[in-house]
Amino acid sequence: MCYADKKLSETKVFKDPVHRYIHVDDQVVWDLVGTAEFQRLRRIKQLGTTYTTFHGAEHSRFGHSLGVYEIIRRMIDDVFTGREGWNPADRLLCLCAALLHDVGHGPFSHSFEKVFAVDHEEFTQRMIVGDTEINNVLKQVSTEFPQQVADIIGKKSNNKLAISMISSQIDADRMDYLLRDAYFTGVSYGKFDLERLLRVMRPLPQGIAVKKSGMHAVEHYIISRYQMYWQVYFHPVTRSAEVLLNSIFKRVRYLYQEEYRFQHQPVHFYSIFDGKISVEDYLQLDENIMMYYFQVWQKEDDTILADLCRRFLHRHLLKYVDFTDDFQKNNWVELEHLCKKAEIDPKYYVVVDSISDLPYDFYRSEDDDGCQPILLLMPDGKLRELSRESHLVEAMSRKEQTDRKLYYPYEMIDDNTHHTEMKSKIRRILDRSK
Amino acid sequence: MCYADKKLSETKVFKDPVHRYIHVDDQVVWDLVGTAEFQRLRRIKQLGTTYTTFHGAEHSRFGHSLGVYEIIRRMIDDVFTGREGWNPADRLLCLCAALLHDVGHGPFSHSFEKVFAVDHEEFTQRMIVGDTEINNVLKQVSTEFPQQVADIIGKKSNNKLAISMISSQIDADRMDYLLRDAYFTGVSYGKFDLERLLRVMRPLPQGIAVKKSGMHAVEHYIISRYQMYWQVYFHPVTRSAEVLLNSIFKRVRYLYQEEYRFQHQPVHFYSIFDGKISVEDYLQLDENIMMYYFQVWQKEDDTILADLCRRFLHRHLLKYVDFTDDFQKNNWVELEHLCKKAEIDPKYYVVVDSISDLPYDFYRSEDDDGCQPILLLMPDGKLRELSRESHLVEAMSRKEQTDRKLYYPYEMIDDNTHHTEMKSKIRRILDRSK
Amino acid sequence: MCYADKKLSETKVFKDPVHRYIHVDDQVVWDLVGTAEFQRLRRIKQLGTTYTTFHGAEHSRFGHSLGVYEIIRRMIDDVFTGREGWNPADRLLCLCAALLHDVGHGPFSHSFEKVFAVDHEEFTQRMIVGDTEINNVLKQVSTEFPQQVADIIGKKSNNKLAISMISSQIDADRMDYLLRDAYFTGVSYGKFDLERLLRVMRPLPQGIAVKKSGMHAVEHYIISRYQMYWQVYFHPVTRSAEVLLNSIFKRVRYLYQEEYRFQHQPVHFYSIFDGKISVEDYLQLDENIMMYYFQVWQKEDDTILADLCRRFLHRHLLKYVDFTDDFQKNNWVELEHLCKKAEIDPKYYVVVDSISDLPYDFYRSEDDDGCQPILLLMPDGKLRELSRESHLVEAMSRKEQTDRKLYYPYEMIDDNTHHTEMKSKIRRILDRSK
Amino acid sequence: MCYADKKLSETKVFKDPVHRYIHVDDQVVWDLVGTAEFQRLRRIKQLGTTYTTFHGAEHSRFGHSLGVYEIIRRMIDDVFTGREGWNPADRLLCLCAALLHDVGHGPFSHSFEKVFAVDHEEFTQRMIVGDTEINNVLKQVSTEFPQQVADIIGKKSNNKLAISMISSQIDADRMDYLLRDAYFTGVSYGKFDLERLLRVMRPLPQGIAVKKSGMHAVEHYIISRYQMYWQVYFHPVTRSAEVLLNSIFKRVRYLYQEEYRFQHQPVHFYSIFDGKISVEDYLQLDENIMMYYFQVWQKEDDTILADLCRRFLHRHLLKYVDFTDDFQKNNWVELEHLCKKAEIDPKYYVVVDSISDLPYDFYRSEDDDGCQPILLLMPDGKLRELSRESHLVEAMSRKEQTDRKLYYPYEMIDDNTHHTEMKSKIRRILDRSK
Predict the structure, then answer these.
(1) For the segment A12-27, what is each residue's pLDDT rounded down to a tens digit?
(2) Residue C400: what pLDDT?
(3) Mutate to test the interface with D, among A196, A197, A201, A377 (most CBs of D within 10 A)
(4) Mean pLDDT of all residues belonging to chain C
(5) Mean pLDDT in residue range B323-327
(6) Is C62 on the interface with D (CB under 8 A)?
(7) pTM of the entire structure?
(8) Which residue does chain D place closest to B187, by CA atoms?
(9) CA A175 to the chain's CA centroid
(10) pLDDT tens across A50-68, in order?
(11) Are A263 and A298 in contact (CB under 8 A)?
(12) Strands in D150-251 per DSSP E
């Protein structure tokens, strides 16, 4: 029997709190889970710094990746198999793409990618086609298989159905993370009816469609997403921790560029500072490594770096006020000026964060980022875009919501041992915005 | 108002997946949560290496510590307050002891303490009475308060009730961890009825008692414990990861003693190797630091250390067979001998693990380790030890169960490039035990 | 101690699947639960005929009434007590009104009230002030107390806060039934975060307000309601069972008026047919009595009544098509005509049902039926109507949705033993609407 | 295609709170659900009078029957299919037996069967082979099929595997009712891991066996059963309601035999009183009919019958004390004597109830009632009886527990308007037992 078709002698199961059990029958899948690159996902948290707000959110991308795989497996084995639109030859391709879709994530991806201009999707593809244990497994299926998997994840394939299963407005990725993140944070928002949703999905050449009779299950899923974004993912306290992370990364790069003499050399960062990081270097970066550096940097002579690291480790986060248009027009320039005078470097300490900076992919019928819309399969066999049928979704998709906040170091500004006059002015400005 | 009685202007809540919400009203409690030592608990997993078996078990001791606090808070505020046996003056003492009971845990405590002969309970007490942020908070309550809290945790206090709330056969610690570990692993075993159990507890001078009418709730709790121990805590795969950790620690200490030249010096370990670790050094040891070292040590020249670290990081665990009395008598000496000949050092690679080595505190009526038994409060006001009334508990407490397994490196033994004859003999011995 | 203040010697608890436990401390509440009128609620299903669609929905109004009581108890004891806007003297009043708010419900209220023009709210008030066991309990509190309780339920009191707790857009009634009906049907829609919602409620003279910071919890509740209405309460199959019930009630009244000789006299119905039902007669009507009659009427000579009862008991429901404006304009008159010719009486068998007939109280900012809107308490202390702040609610409250269906007896129309030509025409008309 | 193999054009699903969804693909199963006899199960509560103790327990045998069917369907389709021990030809037989296993239950079976000496298992079989809608469906499969189904349920078949799936110590019946009854009562006891348990089951000629590696899942199930029995099924308050029911049935039969002139003739009972009830008569008996009679009998002249019915309807239950051997020896004769003198008929009002009277089928290795023991399938392929391997089960199965209580009418005995001296003596006797 060829490797692609090889089954385990007995189904292996992973106990999973979200899906109860994750079932693996295929040797290829089992071998991928055992690779160093996949095991590394245990060392990268699914929600980055969200644990500073929701202490339960300590789960890693490892469980999520298994969960996406399991959803795709059920979608195929329980719903698609035997239906006209489904090509059984795509099964292994979809399972592997599901399992590996996040494998290129770096530590604290959100801030890390922003500051260092790397892209986890690119690294995911490089890991799949590069010289890795994952590649060694995949190429046993066939020489072209690694590239095929990478093309599904990179949305470059012609297989639109497979792409839509892994990445669209209603893909297995979102379905798993909403359920999983709700479970681990403990919030009650994300719990749509996965089983019902899977049952009403149908495979079509242009992607997954949902039977009209299941529209309410889709609405529930869309609303869950809306609520998870605003209640969990965009939580202002989490964003405060992200602001600190950003500042740490910016500061350390600045010091490196200025040839500052680190007591503890950031050797793991050199290639990323120099903008030429290899897959091998990248694989060594995980959140344990980051946290190690944050801890040792607490003792650096550079007071900004040391302070930022202490703040991050001990959760002395920045406070915030709403950053309105008025504030921007009337106070922002003055505030920056005053902070500089008070020796509080605004570049690292007084920061505006807008949620449009966050990966906001809430439902839009206008498909401007290549994201596929959700299609309903009507009783007459025609397809209709969801918001044309659902009042609820139509209403929700109309307006974009934004939220801008100004983050600032409360304790520094409240400390009157120096620059008392400046700080008193700063406080007056901030108090007006509360 | 004195600091001990100071309330927050509004109740602060932590969203918690196990207890829904954790409520903080006391300034002292709030300040303790904000200390560097308490925040450090986020970097120490509640279940050590269990995540290698149950991937959901990535939760830290931070959430558990809040959970124990919350159970004690409810026990006091919802059940004990106003009852005869309860002294309202003990409230803050119990809350602080609950919150801080685990604060001295080191990274991967189980193996760490075993190899390096440190004791987390001792460090908990040293942190509370030593020069720490925690101590700074507690001593504002009163000069004696830190020692009082430490004495509850250390079971040296005369306040038997308070001790039994934090540490007895039915304490808040066990109640939280059973529920929490069941939640995060996703198993269905640990879910006894906490609310019911709290409602039937009564404060007595000699400790917590449980009303007879609530005996079935206690039985459920005892059985949950039994099942969690055998299904989760003693899982043979987790023990395999612990065996690896043990070997890493033993190897690195050996190399240090032999004055091996590390490429990456284990500076964080020096004082522990030398047996004179301070609280300050100890506080820097967390699981991120450990994982950092394991990662960099993969490149050490010492092949044993490098291999053990690779195995641990990429989850190439040891396999196991039952280690019976027969095996010990007939095969053990020969097996060790053969392994040495095959250049597989049995000290690190072929290891017997017995669960009596694990912190097995399942219910015993014989109270040999100072652990308080569970007392039932009968309708006539008398007390009876639980197993005298419950057939189920009596049956369960009678016999001790042990489980011994022999762990071995499957791939090494199966690799026939060298020492083929020895290895073939080793395999024959092991196969007989399957 | 006066009766109003009398406490039970120990808290009594009811195990409840929705709230875990329902706690009773007050003698008055305990005595009310023990009355014949309250126990009768066990014989009236919470969701009438919904069990024909969701087989789990067999729960009665008894559990719901306890649940509403428990929510009000927690709202008062855990959130309102000690706050400025709350008058402690209103506690018992609110608890009793909560417990008794549904006590006047008749069997299968929806159809029963529609056909016989009775109003359960009126009967609730008559039971409270009339000669009943409930009244005997309440008047021990004070002579005026029964009328005060009735006035809260009847929204005639000046106590707007108490009214809003029992009946408003965000009252304890809706909060319990959404959670309870979701639990028993097994759907995943209704599960908003009750604990969070209670915590952000504030007592004001004009009614309950919700702190702005809790707006997302209110949104979740509003959406849960929307989804429960469309997924459960308005389910077309349930409406089909209601259509049958309507027809049974109409037929039996018609036969009574025509002096038809029943084999089994509907003695329990006489006073309701005659339009002069007393509280005593009303109390004897429960769903067991109804089902008894349906069963014995299966053997009546009147074929319409016998057939309708058989259909209801054995769940041979009517089928349905959408009843569009087009259909009404073009086909309706002809269809009725053909049915009569085919000896299918359209009065009982071919029925249009519109959900505007159902108690649709989904959120509207326009408060046309005396229903109080939801008020947000802003950080500056001002009040704002919810849809002014929430994009989601604003979007959802704008348009009314309606749904009209035509129900018809599939088997009769498909039976070609008689009137084959008519029936063939009828089928053609109906097929066009599928 | 033959009827036995006919599939529905699309899977039909029932929303079920316990199993999420119940899936029906077979036309035979769908047709059976639509029969009058199966729909009648909606009018018979799963737990009889348990709703008087746990108000959530209002669920009927309809949902349970679907649940048992669903468990068998999953056992076959997800676990057994394709394994050596499983004969695919038995699939429909097992599904039908599962669905129909309880169809012969009468109203309030426990008391009803006890007083009138009928047996629901006998009626189940009579319904399946007699002139019923169920039989009409089954015989379309084949002439012998109804008898084959009846023989599985009646344990008369040679197909031991099929029998053990429906009725053994670990059958689908028990598995569903433990989960379902725990869900509806709201207790936390019954929740073993169904999915895990199914996965470790193996089909063998002598019945279901469970893989040794799944032993802990079986233990969990056994303990759940133990706890459900003692916490729910044997609850003393429920038994009090059963005692009342018994008394009602006994009294009404006595009156019939004495030719008492009922105001409301119990026509539905005549054939059962006369000991010659037909299937047709039996099918008309449901709990609605019973409750109708209880209501109208409240107005009968016979004060005992009227009082017992009032008590049952309004939940004025009997109180209880432990009925010890001492009490029996020393007080019982005197107590009966005193009651008679005080005009309290002990036959109906002062009743000893022993739980050995209840269907106690908790695990026993000694298989005295034809109940099959639980077999473990060891790694070496041998079978071992569960209690030989499990310390826990061995301990639990050793001793039988019994519980005897004396039920008495508290209000009558406390009412001092008549027979004050007798009653005072009665109270003294009862008080000694508290």
Answers:
(1) 999 999 999 999 999 9
(2) 64
(3) A196
(4) 91
(5) 90
(6) yes
(7) 0.93
(8) D193
(9) 13
(10) 999 999 999 999 999 999 9
(11) no
(12) 201-204, 207-211
Q: How far apart are CA B316 and CA C100, in angstroms?
A: 64
Q: How many helices (H) does chain C have, and how many strands (E)?
A: 24, 9
d(CA A332, CA A329): 7
The boundaries of every CATH 1.10.3210.10 domain in chain D are 3-235+377-387
Is the pLDDT higher at C67 or at B219? C67
The pLDDT of residue B396 is above 90: no
Task: For residue B46, give every residue at least 6 positions away whose Cβ sits within 8 Å of its Cβ, in sequence order, or none.
Answer: B57, B59, B60, B61, B63, B64, B177, B180, B181, B184
Low-confidence ranges of chain D (pLDDT < 70): 356-372, 398-400
The pLDDT value recorded for residue A399 is: 59
Tokens 């006890």, residue? Answer: D114
Q: What distances in angstroms separate CA A164 from CA A217, D123, D336, one per listed residue?
A: 18, 55, 78
Contact state of C20 with B195 under an 8 Å Cβ cutoff: yes
| Residue numbers of C between 283 and 312 with CB closer than 8 Å to D | 284, 286-289, 291-292, 295
Q: Are the C-beta atoms of residues A113 and A120 closer than 8 Å to each other?
A: yes
- Between residues D260 and B379, the one the model is more confident about: D260
Q: What confidence tens digit (pLDDT) does each residue in B61-115 have?
A: 999 999 999 999 999 999 999 999 999 999 999 999 999 999 999 999 889 998 9
Q: Name the E strands within B267-392.
A: 319-322, 351-354, 375-377, 383-385
A14, A15, A183 member nearest B187 (Cβ): A15
- The C-alpha of D192 sits at a distance from chain B's nearest C-alpha, in angstroms, of 7
Residue A362, Cβ neighbours under 10 Å: how many?
15
Using the predicted structure, report yes or no on whether residue C365 has a pLDDT greater than 50: no
pLDDT at residue C201, as a whole number:
97
Count, residues in chain A: 434
Using a CB-CB cut-off of 8 Å, the residues of chain C touching B19 are none
Among the partner-chain residues D191, D219, D401, the one whose CB lies closest to the CB of B391 is D401
Domain limits, CATH 1.20.1250.30, in chain A: 236-356+403-432
Rounded to an integer, what distance in angstroms lies between the CA atom of residue C396 and that of residue C400? Answer: 9
Distance of CA D29 to the CA centre of its chain: 23
Residue ranges of chain A assigned to CATH 1.10.3210.10:
3-235+376-398
What was the ipTM of the complex prediction?
0.94
Name which of A172-176, B303-307, B367-371 the model is least confident about.
Answer: B367-371
Digit-coded pLDDT (tens) for C319-353: 999 998 989 998 999 999 999 999 999 999 999 99
Q: Please, which chains are in contact with D (at least 3 CB pairs closer than 8 A)?
A: A, B, C
Q: Compare CB distances from C284 to D15, D16, D295 and report the shortest one's residue.
A: D295
Task: Tell how strand A351-354 and strand A20-26 pair up.
Answer: unpaired
The CATH number fitting domain A3-235+376-398, selected from 3.40.50.300, 3.40.50.2300, 2.30.40.10, 1.10.3210.10: 1.10.3210.10
Give yes or no for residue B307 having a pLDDT over 60.
yes
CA gap B186, B17 in Å, rounded: 12
Superfamily of domain D3-235+377-387: Hypothetical protein af1432 (1.10.3210.10)
Does the domain at residues C3-234 carry the CATH identifier 3.40.50.300? no
Q: Do the chains contact at C216 and A231, CB–CB below 8 Å?
A: yes
At residue B38, the pLDDT reads: 98
Asked if CATH classification 1.10.3210.10 holds for the domain at B3-234+375-398, the reply, yes or no, is yes
CA distance C139 to A137: 80
* Mutual angle of helices B391-398 and D391-398, in 10-degree steps: 140
B neighbour chains, 3+ CB pairs within 8 Å: A, C, D
Domain A236-356+403-432 has CATH 3.40.50.150: no
How distant, in Å, are the alpha carbons of B321, B329, B354 from that of B324?
9, 9, 11
